[in-house]
Write a structure and sequence with these properties.
Elements (H helix, E strand, L loop, with lengths): L2 H13 L6 H7 L5 H16 L4 E6 L2 E6 L4 H12 L5 H13 L2 E2 H8 L4 H9 L3 E7 L6 E5 L1 H7 L10 H8 L26 E3 L11
Antiparallel strand pairs: 1-2, 3-5, 4-5, 4-6
Helix pairs in contact: 1-3, 5-7
Length: 213
């Protein structure tokens, strides 16, 4: 068995977003005899049985290269550190719009900010600062976004009533927020108030499990 086949199998297992099955591996390497592919896979397994930070596991009918269980605490710290990294100006502006206009849809946020905010909203969802709370009962049934308990914890607020005035928030964050944030929220203008559920389908009711990015 050539070392380059072993390296190729290792690369494929590492790069696969899901456990890589033997069937898929054989299909990808159809120019190689299956016994050679199997030998290469076994060589990779032996390689990762040696001391190190990674190991090869068989899970869900396939193979994955994962971190060793004894290092999980440090891996958890890494992801916690990543989740607490500073937000960009664009993310802070979007978060402010959601905080003061919630529940609010992505198109409404984009209209207020004047730019497409889909990617920024995805970042805020990843950071668990905002979440989907329902769908608006309009054409297309867009998701409605609101802030989370993590948002309150991060900014030291006991509740949304503790939010500072928009002008004070803008000054504190050094942001040039759109003037629409200073205007009171009006459900007749197409944005539902937090206590107005007439135009909202609740998350527990009609929102399906799906990706929100």
């Amino acid at each position: 068995m050539a070392d380059d086949l072993k390296a190729l199998v290792e690369a494929l297992v590492f790069a696969s977003p899901e456990p890589l099955t033997r069937k898929t591996l054989y299909k990808l390497l159809d120019s190689e005899p299956q016994e050679d592919v199997e030998a290469a896979l076994e060589a990779v397994r032996e390689l990762y049985e040696q001391s190190g930070g990674l190991h090869l596991v068989e899970v869900a009918g396939g193979f994955q290269i994962v971190t060793r269980p004894e290092f999980h605490e440090w891996i958890r710290r890494l992801f916690h550190e990543r989740s607490t990294q500073r937000l960009s100006v664009q993310a802070l502006e979007t978060l402010a719009v959601i905080a003061y206009k919630q529940p609010v849809t992505a198109p409404e946020i984009s209209e207020i900010r004047g730019v497409n905010t889909a990617g920024v909203i995805g970042t805020l969802v990843d950071r668990r600062l905002v979440k989907v709370v329902g769908r608006k009962r309009v054409i297309g049934r867009p998701f409605l976004y609101a802030t989370t308990q993590e948002f309150l914890n991060r900014f030291g607020l006991s509740g949304l009533d503790d939010l500072p005035k928009v002008e004070d928030m803008a000054e504190a964050l050094g942001l040039d927020l759109p003037h629409e944030l200073s205007a009171p929220t009006d459900p007749e203008q197409g944005i539902a108030l937090p206590n107005d559920t007439s135009s909202v389908e609740s998350e527990a009711g009609s929102v399906e499990e799906e990706q929100v990015y």
